[in-house]
Structures are given as structure tokens and as C-alpha cells.
Amino acid sequence: MVCLGPLTNVALALKLDPNFNFKRIVIMGGNYYGIGNVASKSSAEFNFHGDPEAASIVLHKLAPRLVIVPWEAFFLEGAKHQKEVDFNAHLHYDTKLASFLRTVTSRGRAAMEKNGRQFSYCDEIAVAAAINLEKVARKTVHLRVNVELSGTHTRGQVVVDWVDVLWNNEDAEYVASQGKMIDRNSSPITFIASYNVLVVDDWLKKAVRGEPGPW
Questions:
Q1: Are 55 and 156 in contact (CB under 8 A)?
Q2: Domain boundaries, the chain
Q3: I need a surface site. Which of 62, 107, 169, 188 has the fewest CB within 10 A?
Q4: In this predicted structure, what is the pLDDT of residue 178?
Q5: Of 31, 26, 49, 28, nearest to 39 (Cα)?
Q6: Cα 86 from Cα 48, distance rounded (Å)
Q7: Per its UniProt record, what Pfam families does this chain match (predicted)?
């Protein structure tokens, strides 16, 4: 299952059906460096900010099955990737899907263009990861997290347990600690820290052209 908005429906499904079960759920939402996109004084990502309680329920109940594409994948990775691909190329195809995507991304593209950047991939990463995580994810990190449910500026922010992490000095890799001090009620969640933009770009162009997949 792929979730591209607030997690209200998933949280309700968990409450209503004890047998609610998916092998993997890929979520576009949340953050892990506290980079927000709701307002100038908020450190929350839009989807989690829309229903922090639902996000908290889903992350706690389904942690081992979750793959999260955080806002940083758009915000940080996009700036680097626009040197590798043209994020607008697929929008120029003469297809109904290209026309639809031009419409739904118009405001975002306009806002990014004011800052000299293209509107990079976001939801597309989550869909591609659901198709083939191994081909799409260049780097994943496994972290124990909570969702802030209070706070004037932080409500909806994903809070990472940075205290109980293990660091690899060679490349500053971080993984959830298995030490005695960690919260055993909190399972590590997989975050996509870096993705293969060339794969996502290729798949998206083929989908917009109407070519059959998966690729």
C-alpha cells in the first residue's frame, strides 16, 4: 500500500479491523531532520501535520512493515538531482497523464521556480519504492521515532531517537541501537535517505507515455 497524504484512514482501519495487514506500507510523509513545509514557524511535514495522532498510531502499530519517504528526500535530494535530470521533461508529453500532472503540480512548480529550482520528485519516489524498493533506494536508515503531538511549532514533527543510535565512523552511518537503554516498545522504521533519481525518472517517463510496467 502507498500512502501519499495524512494517515487518518490507515489509523481508523487499524482501530476497526484487528486483522488489518499489509506486507509493506510505503508512506510519503514525515521528516527526520526536522525540516518542515507547513509554515515558516513549523518543523512538521504537511501530511503528518494534517493528522499527527493518526501518524503516531500508524508508526507505532506498523513500524516493522513501514518504509517512509521523508520530506528531506524532496528538499535535500532534489537540489542535487536537478543536475542529473529534467524534472519537467515528462510534463511535455502529449498524453492525458502528462496533462493531469501539469495541472496538479502547477502551484508547486511555480513556487520552486521563484527560488531557481525545479519541482523535484516526491510522491513519485514512494510509488516507485513500492514497485521495487531495492532498485529505487540508494540508502536507507533504520531509526526509532515518535511523532510530536503537542508543541506550538513542532506538532506533527517526527522525533528521532538520536541518543540511542550506533554510528559507523567510516561514513557516519546510523542505525537504531539494540542497546539496553532503548525503548523496546519502539521498533526501527525504514527511512529512504537517498534514492536513485535516474530509475524514478525513467519509470515515470515510461508511465506517462503509457508503456506497460513494472519496468
A1: yes
A2: 2-90+121-197
A3: 169
A4: 57
A5: 49
A6: 29
A7: IU_nuc_hydro
What is the Rg, in whole angstroms, of the alpha carbon atoms belonging to the chain?
Answer: 18
Q: Give the pairing of strands 25-28 and 66-69.
A: parallel
Beta strands in 84-170 (DSSP E): 137-143, 145-147, 158-160, 165-168
| Pick from 39, 104, 33: nearest CA to 74 | 33
pLDDT tens by residue, 102-122: 999 999 999 889 888 899 999
What grid cell was written down for 183?
A: 525503548
Pairwise CA distance, residues 30 & 28, whole Å: 7
In whole angstroms, give the CA distance from residue 27 to residue 120: 17
Q: Are 49 and 4 a contacting pair, CB within 8 Å?
A: no
Residue whose entry in the numeric block shows the C-alpha cell 494517515:
7
CATH of domain 2-90+121-197: 3.90.245.10
pTM: 0.88
